[in-house]
Write a structure and sequence with these properties.
elongated, 7% strand, 5 helices, mainly alpha
């Protein structure tokens, strides 16, 4: 897993509002606790509202909300077609992820016209 993906995954874990130890996060991410310490310091320095310290744990103090995304009808159609291609292919290693994403987009953007998922 690359660093960007790990940082994204860390934020997703921290969004539950609970205190997480570096050891717990390190095990979940498959890295060392030292890497988690560096990641947390970097996230705090870039403005992500993560609080905590070594030995105690880390928590996200304020919820992170993504800005709304506007898609044109053509963009939504392309996105739906691409996701359905992966979601309908049982041999594809990311079939489950494609199905989950397709469901989320259909739920969050009903105007996209992705229909029943």
């Amino acid at each position: 897993m690359n660093r960007d993906q790990r940082l994204y995954d860390l934020v997703q874990v921290l969004r539950d509002g609970r205190l997480h130890t570096a050891a717990e996060l390190a095990q979940a991410m498959g890295v060392s606790t030292r890497t988690i310490w560096r990641d947390m310091a970097m996230m705090a320095a870039t403005g992500i509202p993560v609080e905590g310290e070594r030995g105690l744990g880390y928590i996200l103090r304020t919820p992170l909300v993504l800005p709304p995304t506007t898609l044109t009808p053509d963009e939504a159609a392309v996105l739906g077609e691409a996701l359905r291609a992966f979601a309908d292919d049982p041999a594809h290693p990311r079939q489950r992820a494609a199905r989950n994403l397709l469901y989320k987009i259909a739920t969050l953007l009903p105007q996209a016209g992705l229909g029943e998922v």
